[in-house]
Amino acid sequence: MNIKNITKYVALALGVIGLILQVVILRKGDDAIEMDSLAGNFSSVSPMINLAILILIVVVLITLFSSFATLASNAAKLKKAGISIAAFGAVVLLSFLLSEGVETPLKDGDILSASGSRLVETGLRTFYFLAVIAIGAMVFSGVKRLFK
Fold first, then answer.
1. How far apart are CA 34 and CA 74, in angstroms?
2. How far, rounded to the nearest angstrom, does the alpha carbon of residue 54 sit from its chain's CA centroid?
3. What is the distance between the alpha carbons of residues 36 and 50, in angstroms, rounded to a whole number?
4. What are phi and psi of 122, to 5 degrees?
5. Spans of all domains in the chain
6. Residue ranges of E strands in the chain
7. Vertex 69, ends 66 and 72: CA angle to 5°?
8. What is the pLDDT along the chain (148 residues), one digit of tens a residue?
9. Which of 11, 17, 32, 98 is 20 to 30 A (C-alpha) from 38?
């Protein structure tokens, strides 16, 4: 049995479970669910939320497995992926090294630590660097196409 068949059966089983949970929720009714939630009882909705989380985990695992299997089967793709990951890591490292953290008071009265502030700044700088790189690549591609 290959991965596509396994995926199909898992998707079918999760779909049937979701359908059953949906019918249970619909039969209970909005008013009853709202009254239960006001009392702190989320037992009718919690299984649907847990199923959604399970589906998310299954989809992520299948996607990762499929991606790594494809990469492992082709050395050129594996090398290209490694170079791309290393380049992204270099951008994140450069962003981290250029960032500095300062304790910052928040609106709710808490204080953002210096390390938290540095991580936020790292994320912003990474975004800006990647945006500039993407715009530069598009401009370079356009100019290159003009001269051909």
1. 53
2. 15
3. 18
4. -60, -45
5. 1-73, 75-148
6. 104-105, 111-112
7. 150
8. 677 788 788 888 988 998 988 888 888 887 877 877 777 777 777 888 888 898 899 889 888 888 888 888 888 888 998 999 999 999 999 999 999 988 888 888 889 899 999 999 999 999 999 999 999 999 999 999 998 8
9. 17
CB distance 36 to 42 below 8 Å: yes
Whether the model clears a pTM of 0.85, i.e. scores above it, the answer is no
User: Is residue 58 within 8 Å of 10, Cβ to Cβ?
Assistant: yes
Are 92 and 126 contacting, i.e. CB atoms less than 8 angstroms apart? yes
One-letter amino acid of 9? Y
- d(C-alpha 78, C-alpha 84), whole Å: 10
Cβ within 8 Å of residue 114, ≥6 positions away: 101, 102, 103
